[in-house]
Amino acid sequence: LDEQEAFDIEYWLLEEAKLQRMPKPKSLAGQVAVVTGGAGGIGRASCARLLREGACVVACDIDAEGLETAVSDLQAAFGKDVVRGLPVNVTDEQSVIKLMHDSCAEFGGIDILVSNAGISSAAPIDETSLAVWQRNMDILSTGYFLVSREAFKIMKLQDRAASMVFVASKNGLVASPGASAYCTAKASEIHLARCLALEGAPYGIRVNVVNPDAVLRGSKIWTGEWREQRAKAYDMEPDQLEEHYRKRSMLKLNVLPEDIAEAIYFLASDMAAKSTGNILNVDAGHAPSFTR
Ligand code: NAD
To answer: From the record, what ranges are coiled-coil (predicted)?
Structure first.
């Protein structure tokens, strides 16, 4: 190296070191995110992750009490001005229209939609009542349709890039024992996302999917009937489930709500500016393999 080259390298290294020490600008500053199912495990973790990047967040849920707790915790951590809690029933068209309207009134638009509100309900096919089938379709399939349609209308009118992330499930790609209604509804969410990606692209609206594998910690759906049903389907006790999911994964890890939130943040942000219509499996390495 001649003297000038050595100087240039040293100067560059010093500049790099300075940059490393500088606080990073918040990557979602000025953006508004609506997160459905915000009172639940994945929804709440997602709100926190997006808030940490500077977004304003509307957390919405049908569970009024759970939402109040989640919102007051988030406000305590991030400030009152950047978080709102709004009620919604994602199966009710008027309720969803009102949610999107009120979100715009609160923060002036919608840049990010995280469609996440959901349930888990399962039974072997010959024991699946029409009511159970319909409930899965209503909340998951129709709920995702209504929420994304109303957000789409607003995003289309805004003259800027926007993004939707659907929290579907590994079970939307592969079959799971005794859960046909849930698996079918989740598969429809994934295909809806692909269709919306195609329709949204001309307006700069990206639509991607995160597929979690079992996220037991923090999740309300893992506390009741679903937990019992899954344990029965795998012929084990409910308290063995977490270990079962860990052991069957390639990485031998359980998936946590924060892992899903990280993937949602990635897909919602400019880091994924050239990704649309895609699926990100967050399953510690399981989805490509098969059913159990
Ligand atoms: P969770 O039960 O903790 O949260 C779901 C939230 O959705 C709840 O707060 C619930 O009140 C809300 N909700 C239910 N019905 C609603 C309705 N009609 N309108 C508005 N809100 C409603 O569960 P979670 O684990 O956080 O699940 C979030 C999403 O992730 C769901 O779509 C679920 O299917 C999906 N998922 C979860 C897992 C898992 O193992 N936890 C795995 C794969 C996919």
So the answer is: none
Ligand 1 atom with the smallest distance to the CA of 139 is 18
The ipTM value here is: 0.99
Pocket mutation for ligand 1, best pick of 62, 113, 165, 192 (most atoms within 8 Å of C-beta) = 62
Mean pLDDT of 22-34: 89
74 burial (CB, 10 Å; 0-12 / 13-18 / 19+) is buried
Residues touching ligand 1 (Cβ under 6 Å) are: 36-37, 39-43, 61-63, 66, 88-91, 116-120, 139, 143, 167, 169, 212, 214-215, 219-222
pLDDT tens track for 179-238? 999 999 999 999 999 999 999 999 999 999 999 999 999 888 888 788 888 888 889 999
- What is the distance in A from the centroid of ligand 1 to the CA of 273? 26
**What predicted TM-score, i.e. pTM, was given to this entire model?**
0.93
Per-residue pLDDT averaged across 125-131, rounded? Answer: 94
Q: Which residues are catalytic?
A: 182
